[in-house]
Amino acid sequence: MVRLALVLAASMAWAAESDYYRLITIPVPDGLKLEGSGMETLPDGRVAVAIRKGEVWIASNADEEPPRRVSFKRFASGLHEPLGLAWHNGDLLVMQRSELTRLRDTNNDGEADEYLTEAKGWGVTGAYHEYAYGPKIDPQGNLWVTLNSTIGERLTQDDKWRGWSLVVKPGGEWKPVSMGMRSPSGIGLNAAGDVFYTDQQGNWVPTNSLHHIRSGAFHGHPDALKHAGRNASDVARGIPLDEALRRVPDLVMPAVWFPYRKMGMSATDAVCDRTGGKFGPFGDQLFVGDFTLSLVMRVWLEKVDGDYQGACFPFREGFDSAVVRLGWGRDGSLFAGLTNRGWNSLGTSSYGLQRLVWTGKTPFEILRMPARPDGFELVFTKPVDPRSAESPGSYRVSSYTYLYHPAYGSPEINTQELKVRSAKLSADRRSVHLAVDGLRPTYVHEVHAEGVRSETGEPLVHPAGYYTLNRIPTQ
User: Is 324 helix (H, G, I), strand (E, B) or coil?
Assistant: First the structure.
């Protein structure tokens, strides 16, 4: 019944979303199980796709419309569960479970003939979930990698640096950076070049999240603490997150929580829109995939007192399978590498490659949602109708937090409905200042604006936003 309800709700959203963002399915040859686990667009526009069974394939003409001339050629094979690709200094880098590998085609025949170790040395115990993700390249040329915590039965005890982020310097030397990750399946950079990762709900992780990677930060999962010489059993547990922040050394909150089911169920890849308007009005924002609900979410970030926080919004549902990897095409469209790995996800397929294209029509959406000392400012993609926008009754606001504990996930706790005291429209009718009573730092603030209409009478395509208010700004 839960799956049926999700499907029915999704079908209603697809109808509106598809007016603005079309999904194109890339045909795949019979016999090729394109279980997309890594993806990179090459300088000439071809798309490289790693598949979980250890191969890399390169698709030509995948960005043509309609995609009638698409062809696939195998570039590499024999890899150990590759979960990421990056184009780097003329070669493809691939992230395997035990090493970061450079694939080199020395005779230009379209197939890799050298497999060179770029970085290795972290622990591998043989546990099923010991995935390794990346790499992503920062503006200084460093390569960023995240390692899944060791979950499940181990064959050895060598789990060193599991649950950590690593940075690989030019030349292959690497060092650990931050700790406390559970299943950090997506790494991405924002427009400023700062590095973020997504984590998935589970033990110690109350719901999916987006974190800013910072040196020495503890992101919450205590299994990684031992590699920093700390005892995981000393971590306070079974308490609300705001209390955990006071009692657990170095614990930092994510920049954004993704409320469970409202905003996906298993966050994956994260990419920043640097297309210069080719993908619509959301430039410099992050787009994050989701595995179980086969969708893409949108994230807007800001800095308050020097740290990132911000809001997430629904964006596009209806992909054929779990969205595991995302990448930009040369035309500004968004490619999605799909695979549900045999687990449960919405959609009509178990794997594939799809492309999301902006139709040129601007959707009526909440574009940004900056925090204010007394509430939030909602900035819209289009001018709004003054009567609806200035009515406090057009909005609903609530806040809640989560438990910090070793159980799998957490319900929303300490929920409060908050009063919208006033709604003041800007002179250009593009933004509304909501004065909200009872803001609470470190809590998620859920804002609904179902009553707001554009100046032409349109309802919002997605009337909800979820702001992680780690700090209330002072001005």
Answer: strand
Answer for the pair 122, 129: CB distance below 8 angstroms, yes or no. no
C-alpha to C-alpha distance for 187 and 256, rounded to whole angstroms: 14
Buried b (16+ CB within 10 A) or exposed e, 205-244: bbbbbbbbbbeebbbbbbbbbebeebeeeebeeeebbbeb
Of 413, 316, 394, the residue nearest 357 (C-alpha): 316
Burial class (CB in 10 A: 0-12, 13-18, 19+), 75: buried
Contacts with 224 (C-beta within 8 Å, 6 or more apart), sequence order: 149, 161, 162, 163, 164, 179, 180, 181
- Report yes or no: 266 and 340 within 8 Å, Cβ to Cβ: no
Pairwise CA distance, residues 470 & 357, whole Å = 34
SS3 label, residue 310:
strand
Q: Do the beta carbons of residue 144 and residue 217 sit within 8 Å?
A: no
pTM of full prediction above 0.85: yes
Most distant pair of Cα atoms in the chain: their distance: 69
CATH 2.120.10.30 fits 2-358, yes or no: yes
| Phi, psi for 286 (deg, rounded to 5) | -95, 145
How many CB atoms within 10 Å of residue 95?
Answer: 30
pLDDT at 341: 87
Q: Where are the domains of the chain?
A: 2-358, 366-469
Q: Which of 293, 230, 260 is nearest to 411 (CA)?
A: 260
Q: Selecting from 2.40.10.240, 2.60.40.1220, 3.50.50.60, 3.30.559.30, what CATH number does the domain 366-469 have? A: 2.60.40.1220
d(CA 334, CA 101): 26
d(CA 415, CA 144): 37
Nearest by Cα to 159 from 187, 121, 186: 121
Distance from chain centroid for Cα 420: 30
The model's pLDDT over 100-116, given as tens digits with 9 standing for 90+, comes to: 999 999 999 999 999 99
Q: Is the pLDDT of residue 65 over 70?
A: yes
Percentage of residues of the chain with pLDDT beyond 70? 97
* Residue 13 pLDDT > 80: no
Spatial distance between the Cα atoms of 56 and 50, rounded to a whole number of angstroms: 4
To which H or E segment does residue 243 belong? helix 241-247
